Amino acid sequence: MRESTVRGEGCGGQAVRAPAIKSAGMRRPALSPSRVPREPGAAGAKDSMASAGQTPTASRRELCQRAIQHARNMRAHLARLLDTYVESQGLNIELDLDYVDGIPSAGTEQWGNLAEAERLELNVKAYRSFQDLLIEVLEDQKQHFTPASTDFHEDIRTAIIHVETFSNHLEELMVALEHTVPEKEPGNSGAEAGTLFQKKLKGYKVLQELSQWARRSISDLNQLSKNGRYQAKAPQTFQTIPVSSRRVRVRNSTE
């Protein structure tokens, strides 16, 4: 602040210092960059994209871990749902599910040789199919098998939500890794024809195979999170393990 010299009348003519009056045109101190308000819009979106591009590894790991946790929660819910399904449908005989088709299989001999994008694409397509299949299972239960079991129906709806959310996680991961997300294909126009017993068996296989897909996805995402890229391994298959062996013994097909 500037000071001016003023002659004091009662001080023997000695000069005293008095503060100068601020000028109306004095410049205000500049704001630091951290205090400058940001305006929403394209500029903010560009900053977010640039920030995301600076830490691709962290973003990849975060997305993988979030998807893995959801897959584990989904698999735990499916284990309980399978037990409830077996009990509510009275499936206490040895079952042969070889002829039940139209359900994505989690086991394949070529799986270990697939590239990162191919694996993620197959996962996304499978979970989209399971969403339609679970809706079909729910409608069959409401119309034919357990019309009064509202809690059971709610458990199936929860499984549908799990599948839809997990599929969105995988799509988000594909975008972050700059892979092309597969286009959505039209779902089934309606439930396939078949006897009530065939519908009952199909519902069981849908839940059983979906649980195997959750296991498959956890393995894929763990590898992607740790290594950054998939590495080809020896072909491996996943055998279906009956959830409730005291009620159902299922002869597994060779996958």
Keywords:
two-stranded antiparallel ribbon; disordered C terminus; single chain; 6% strand; disordered N terminus; mainly alpha; two-stranded parallel sheet; 255 residues
Mean pLDDT: 74
User: What is the radius of gyration?
Assistant: 32 Å
Number of helices: 5
Shape category: elongated
Biggest sheet overview: 2 strands, antiparallel
Helix percent reads 40-55%
Short description:
This protein is 53% helix and 6% strand.
Overview of this structure, please?
The protein is mostly helical. The protein has 5 helices and 4 strands; from the N terminus they run ββααβαααβ. It has a two-stranded antiparallel sheet with strand order 1-2. A two-stranded parallel sheet has the order 3-4. A hairpin with a 7-residue loop joins strand 1 and strand 2. Helix 2 runs antiparallel to helix 4 and helix 3 runs antiparallel to helix 4. The N terminus and C terminus are likely disordered.
Question: What does the secondary structure layout of this molecule look like, with pairings?
Answer:
Layout: E1 3-7, E2 15-19, H1 42-54, H2 56-89, E3 94-96, H3 116-145, H4 150-176, H5 196-227, E4 249-251
Parallel strand pairs: 3-4
Antiparallel strand pairs: 1-2
Helix pairs in contact: 2-4, 2-5, 3-4, 3-5
